[in-house]
Amino acid sequence: MGLKNWWRSITKRSRARTSRGEARRRAWGNWGHPEIERLEDRVTPTVAYQVPNGTLGNQAFGGPLGMDFDVNQPIVVTQLGVFDSGSDGLQSPITATLYQRTSPTTGTQVDQVPFAAGNPGTLVGGSRFLPLSSPVILPAGFQGSIVAEGYSALEPNGNATLPPYNVNKPWTTNDGGGLISFVGSRFSSTPNTFPSTVVNGGPADTFAAGTFQFFAVNTANTFVNDNWNLVQDNGDGVLSVGDRVQNTNDTINPGGITVTYGIDGFGTVTTSSVPGENLGTGSVAGAAKIHDAVAQTTSGGTVNVLEGTYTDAGGPITIDKSVTLLGAQHGVDARTGRPGAAESILNNSQGVYVSASNVTIDGFTVQNSTTRPSPATASTWAPAPAARRSSTMSSRTTSPASAWRTTAPPARPSFSTTCF
Ligand SMILES: [Ca+2]
Ligand SMILES: [Ca+2]
Ligand SMILES: [Ca+2]
Predict the structure, then answer these.
(1) Are residues 67 and 143 in the same domain?
(2) Distance, CA 179 to ligand 3 centroid (Å)?
(3) How many Å lie between the centroid of ligand 3 and the Cα of residue 44?
(4) Could you read off the pLDDT of 105-121 as tens digits, one per residue?
C-alpha cells in the first residue's frame, strides 16, 4: 500500500482504538479514569524512612528510638523495618514497634515485629523488612510513631545530631505523594516503652532506626476479581493479605487496577508475576468472596466486581451492608442486550441475598440460581430466571433460573435497589 493509504489505514485503526477506549471508559464508570495515576495503583510500596544501602551507624543507643508521622490520607502499612548498619545483617536483635501517639509524651502500641539477629526479612536499601501478620490500616488523622530498639556497639543506629551525619545525613523520607507527614523524633532510656523524650532541633528523621512500607488505600472503593495477577509480595513468600494484585488478566482496562489483597482487593489470584518466586495462587479465607469485600468496604461505598464469574460458595451471595455493587457492565442497559460484553457473573445456586437498606446492584448477570436461599425467613424470593436483568427490577425477564430475595419484617430493609 502507498504511503497515503498506509497513513489512512493507521488513522482509521487509531480512530477505532479511540472509540473502543471511550466505550471502555464509559463502561468503566466511576472506578476512575485510566489516564490518571491513582496513588492506590502503585505496585511497589512506599518506604517511609529510607536509608541507602551500606550506611553505617554512628551511635550505640540501646533504648527505643522513635520517629513521628501524621497520616493525611488513609494508608495500609504492610511491613515494618529496621536499619541494618552496614547492610550486613543484624549483630543483635532489633524490635520495630508501631505506636499511635496519644499525647506528646504517650503512645499506644498498634503492632510489633521482632527482628532476630542475622539476616531476617528482606533488605531494601539499608533496612530490613518483615511483614506484619495482618496489614494495618491507618486512617487520615492518625498520629503515629515508628520505634526501633536494641541497637548496640556491634549494631549501631544512625543519629543525625552526631558526626558525621550532623553535616551530611544520607537517609531521607518519602511521604508517598503527601499521604503522610514527618513530624519529629523521640527517644527513651527505658526499654520496652513508648519513648517520651522529644528530640529538640534535629530533623524529623533524626535516626536511622525504624521504618515501614505502606500503600494508599481507599476502603470506600474496593475491587473483586476472579483472576488477579499477583505483582508484589508482602515479604512472606506466599499469597497472603497485604500482597499487591493487579487486574492484568481482564479485558476491560487490563492492569489498570492495583490493590492490596484482603484490604481493598478481594477474590481469586490465578497468576503471579513476582520475579523469582512461585507464590501460591488461589485465595485466602476472609479475602476470597464478594461478601468479604462487602464486609471490608465502608458503608455507603462501592464494591467494584470486575469481569468474571463469582460463586461465593457456601451460601447465597450475601450483601449485608449499604453498598453499591458495580459489575463490569454497570450503567449499560441490559434490556437492549450486551452481546459479547465482558460480564460480571453471579453464579450461585442460592442467588443473591440482600439484607441491608440502600443497596444498589448494577451491571451483573445472575445465573444458575435454583435453590431457595436459607435462612428461610424470606418474605420474597423470586425464582426470577434472568440471565441478564435490566436496569430496573420491574423489567427483569424470566429464564434461565436465578434468585432474588429480601428478608422478612421486622428486619425488613427499605430497598433502594437497582438491578442489574
Ligand atoms: Ca549490621
Ligand atoms: Ca504474601
Ligand atoms: Ca476477571
Answers:
(1) yes
(2) 30
(3) 22
(4) 999 999 999 999 999 99
**Same domain assignment for residues 191 and 302:** no
Average pLDDT over residues 23-31: 42
Write down the residue that cell numbers 522529644 correspond to: 198
Owning domain of residue 66: 46-216
The verdict on 193 and 238 lying in the same domain is: no
For the chain, give percent helix, strand, coil, nearest 5. 10, 40, 50
Q: What is the DSSP letter of 199?
A: P
pLDDT in tens, 361-398: 999 888 887 776 555 443 333 333 333 333 223 223 22
Per-residue pLDDT reduced to its tens digit, 171-202: 999 999 999 999 999 999 999 999 999 999 88
Answer whether 215's CB lies under 8 Å from 76's CB: yes
Q: Which of 183, 198, 216 is the last residue of a domain?
A: 216
Dihedral angle, C-alpha 53, 59, 60, 65, nearest 10 °: -80
398 shares a domain with 258: yes
Across the chain, mean pLDDT equals 83
Cell (9 digits) for 359: 443497596
Measured in angstroms, how far is the CA atom of residue 406 from the centroid of ligand 2? 38
Q: What pTM was estimated for this model as a whole?
A: 0.81
Strand partners, 382: 404
- Supply the DSSP string of 239-267, one letter for each residue: --TT-EEE-TT-SSSTT--EEEBTTTEEE
